[in-house]
Amino acid sequence: MSDLKQLFENNARWADAIKQEDPEFFEKLARQQAPEYLWIGCSDARVPANEIVGMLPGDLFVHRNVANVVLHTDLNCLSVIQYAVDVLKVKHILVTGHYGCGGVRSAMRDTQFGLIDGWLRTIRDLYYEQREHLAQFGNEEERVDRLCELNVIQQVANVSHTTIVQNAWHRGQALSVHGCIYGIKDGLWKNLNVTVSGLEQVPPQYRLRPLGEV
User: Fold this and answer.
1) Is 77 noted as a catalytic residue in this protein?
2) How far is Cα 124 from Cα 121, in angstroms, rounded to an integer?
3) Catalytic pick from 31, 46, 110, 186?
4) Which of 63, 77, 101, 180 is catalytic?
5) Can you give the pLDDT of all 214 residues of the chain as single tens digits?
6) Rounded Cα gap, residues 95 and 50, in angstroms
7) Which of 63, 77, 98, 143 is an active site residue?
8) How far is CA 3 from the centre of its chain?
9) CB-neighbour burial class of residue 10 (10 A; exposed 0-12, middle 13-18, buried 19+)
10) 64 near 43, Cβ under 8 Å?
């Protein structure tokens, strides 16, 4: 427990600072959770979701995994999306990658890392599909950063293809899926301008009718 002493002390100072600024903050926070945003980001410790966009606890619903991947077989991620969309009624899903992502870099190499290799397989596939485009970039860092952007764009599509998001649109629910990327070197959060806000923006082969409609 002594190894965690510094963390507990940090927490006490943080909680005290928040209460000094707003004595009722934690009481209000405990009563409800009503965020308008779901953040799907990378597990990288250098990418703190709330701090990046200047939001306090309660403002941002967060899911993180290695390389901000959205798989249609990942019940953890899909459960987060379903709860955020159907229960919390978020209005925006922020798929956020970051430049220099270690997971993306690993997917570009032939080195084995273990179980994570299976998780990164879809990024490896994307790397192969985009190999000619990526070859135009002058060095590895530029190729990694471009693949980080392409990965975000792919994950935006994956989110938009879920029945969870499409059923929200069928109900007339206001919901947009955005692709963004964070620069660890400069701290800036960038819009990749790949927002999807309705079924008409989804390729026809991925559009699904409402459940029960023949």
Assistant:
1) no
2) 5
3) 46
4) 101
5) 568 999 999 989 989 998 998 898 888 888 777 899 999 999 999 999 999 999 888 899 999 999 999 999 999 999 999 999 999 999 999 999 999 999 999 999 999 999 999 999 999 999 999 999 999 998 999 999 999 999 999 999 999 999 999 999 999 999 999 999 999 999 999 999 999 999 999 999 999 999 877 6
6) 14
7) 98
8) 31
9) exposed
10) yes
Residue 180 falls in the annotated catalytic set = no
Give catalytic status of residue 148 as yes or no.
Answer: no
Q: Within 13 A of 12's CA, how many CA atoms are on the CB side? A: 6
- Check if 186 is active-site: no
Question: For residues 205 and 189, what is the distance between their CA atoms, to the nearest angstrom?
Answer: 32
Coil, helix or strand at residue 93: strand
pTM of the model: 0.93
Q: What is the DSSP letter of 57?
A: T
Structure tokens at 198: 């309705």
* CA distance linking residue 76 with residue 164, whole number of Å: 14
Distance in angstroms (rounded) separating the CA atoms of residues 188 and 137: 22
Asked if 141 and 105 count as a contact pair (C-beta separation under 8 A), the reply is no
- Token reading at 88: 């919390």
- Terminal Cα-to-Cα distance of the chain (whole angstroms): 59
Is the Cβ–Cβ distance between 42 and 103 less than 8 Å?
yes
Residue 98 designated active-site: yes
Sole residue written with tokens 């459940």: 211
Q: Rounded to an integer, what distance in angstroms lies between the CA atom of residue 214 and that of residue 199?
A: 18
Burial class (CB in 10 A: 0-12, 13-18, 19+), 115: exposed
